[in-house]
Each structure stands twice: as C-alpha cells, then as structure tokens.
Amino acid sequence: MAKLGVIGVGAMGGAIVRGLIASGQLPAADILAFNRTRERMHSLEDEFSLPVAPDAATVAKQVKYLLLGVKPYMIAPLLDDLGDALAAKPVVISVAAGKPIATIEAHLPEQTPVVRVMPNVNAQINQSMSGIAANQYVSEEALAEVRAMFDAIGKTALVPEDHFAAFAALAGCSPAWIYRLIDALAQAGVAHGFKKEEATRIVAQAVAGSAQNVLENLPQGLNPQALVDQVCSPAGTTVAGLLAMEDAGFSAAARAAVNAAVARDQELSAS
Ligand SMILES: NC(=O)C1=CN([C@@H]2O[C@H](COP(=O)(O)OP(=O)(O)OC[C@H]3O[C@@H](n4cnc5c(N)ncnc54)[C@H](O)[C@@H]3O)[C@@H](O)[C@H]2O)C=CC1
Ligand SMILES: O=C(O)[C@@H]1CCC=N1
C-alpha cells in the first residue's frame, strides 16, 4: 500500500509531489499518482520515476492518505465516481479553494477522515505556507502525519475552518499578487534602463530579503510598519515613493484583493 495517493497532479498537486520528494519526506515509491491527462505528469515521471496508477479508483483503494489535487468543481463528481473505491476510508486531503469539509464529507462514506489544507504554489521550492483543518474522524496520529507532509514543503498553521477563506487569500492567492508586484516594479526598472531579467532578479532579492527581515523581527514585536519607518529618511526618496504609491491606492488595492478573494471563496462554497 502506497502511503500517499494524489489524484490531479497539476500546478498544486505537482508542486506538493515535487516538494515532498525533493525534501526527502516521502520517497517517490511511497506515492501513487493519477492525472487525467498523463502528459502533464511526464516531467515528474521522468525526473523521479513517480509511480502512476491506471485510474483514480486504483489510487483511492491503495493508499493511506488520498490527496485530491483537482479543481474545486471536480471534487464532488470525482468523489461520486470513486464510490466504493473509498470504502476503506483513506484519510482524504483536499486542497480545493472554497470547498468546506462538510461539502467533501457529503460525497464520502460516513465518518471518513478529511483534512482540508490550503497550501501555496511555493511548495515547488519547499516554501509553502499551508493552513490545515481536520474533521473529528482524523486521529491525532494522522493529523500529525499530514502536518509533517506539509511541514516538509514549507510552514504550516492549524486554522479554524471559519478563517479558511481569509487564510486562502493571505497565503494561497498572495503569491500571485506578489509575483505581479515584482513584475510591476521590474517593469518600472526597465522604463529606467534596466534589462527585464536583471531588474526582476534585483527586485526579487529585495522582496525575499524584506520578507525574511519581517519574519526575523516579528518575535521582537517589530511590525512591518516599523521597518517601513526605518527605510524612509526624512524628505528622502522612499517616503516620496511611498506617498505616491498610497495616492495610487496601494493599501486599498491590497485590501480589495483580499476581500475579492474571500468573496469568491464564499461563492465557490455555495456552488
Ligand atoms: N494553483 C495554486 O496556486 C493553488 C491551488 N489550490 C487548489 O489546488 C487545486 C488544483 O488547482 P491547480 O493545481 O491550480 O489546477 P490544475 O488545473 O493545474 O491541476 C488540476 C489537475 O487535475 C487533473 N484532473 C482534472 N480532473 C481530473 C480527474 N477527474 N482525475 C484525475 N485528474 C484530473 C488535470 O488534468 C490537472 O492536471 C484546486 O482545487 C485549487 O483550489 C490551492 C492552493 C494554491
Ligand atoms: O485561485 C485559486 O482558486 C487557487 C486557490 C488559492 C490559490 N489558487
């Protein structure tokens, strides 16, 4: 019996599989994968000799933990199709946005253990920030094992389910927003004469260093605004840029992004 089955090995499922193997947390031989379009798994198959099942039911029947890596709208039809293949009640791990545990339970045999996880795409480089919630059928041991899997590909936090939509915005979606910020700053650098690749590398390192500095200062109670103040010399260049950024609606845009993501999550939950 493989330890972890993955149905749907796309951007997120693939990032998790890649991260787990690369971190040494799970050897490829302990994973059994199935993706509807097999070509999408070729790089993982070639790189890690990832074991691949002929269909989703084979995965569901043969694993202790079953990770669903399909899009949210596919969760219910997939579980309904699996039917009896889920009779052994593997611990089901869902990473789907906007699909509460109760919705997933409704398509599973009664008392199936379900863990809801919201990772992010930086799992590819073992730098995910993953939120975790579980139903009452997940044993402490199983929860610890699932958490260890996601600890291996980044950091984890136990999150009450009613905070999941906001967590998903802050950690699941935000990488895309930060990538956009990096690209926008780099593009502005291009307008001032830098080559795009060089500008991107400069900005990405500045963002990585800034994030690391925030993380290292938080335990001392120094919040990001205190770091902002350290950079802004009186009548200097940074404060000029900061005020221009706020006049253009920067903080309001960040709040709007979080609010829109939470609203969309709630729409997905209701569908
Ligand atoms: N992309 C991201 O950054 C994040 C995604 N998620 C969640 O991860 C899940 C997957 O999203 P992505 O990886 O972005 O999508 P994706 O489209 O890249 O991957 C989905 C994969 O599932 C496969 N698939 C679809 N139906 C299938 C079926 N019936 N059986 C087997 N394979 C099937 C597709 O061929 C595809 O490779 C979603 O539920 C999403 O909410 C969560 C956090 C972050
Ligand atoms: O865009 C989405 O719906 C997924 C969930 C979090 C990141 N990507």
UniProtKB/TrEMBL annotation:
Signal sequence residues: none
Keyword Cell membrane attached = no
Group of enzyme by EC: oxidoreductase
SUPFAM superfamilies, alphabetically?
6-phosphogluconate dehydrogenase C-terminal domain-like (SSF48179), NAD(P)-binding Rossmann-fold domains (SSF51735)
Recorded GO CC terms: cytoplasm
Q: In which pathway does it act?
A: Amino-acid biosynthesis; L-proline biosynthesis; L-proline from L-glutamate 5-semialdehyde: step 1/1
Known catalysed reaction(s)? L-proline + NADP(+) = (S)-1-pyrroline-5-carboxylate + NADPH + 2 H(+); L-proline + NAD(+) = (S)-1-pyrroline-5-carboxylate + NADH + 2 H(+)
Q: Per its UniProt entry, which superkingdom is the organism in? A: Bacteria
Task of the protein: Catalyzes the reduction of 1-pyrroline-5-carboxylate (PCA) to L-proline.
What is the official name of this protein in its record? Pyrroline-5-carboxylate reductase
Name its species.
Varibaculum cambriense
Tell me the name of the encoding gene: proC
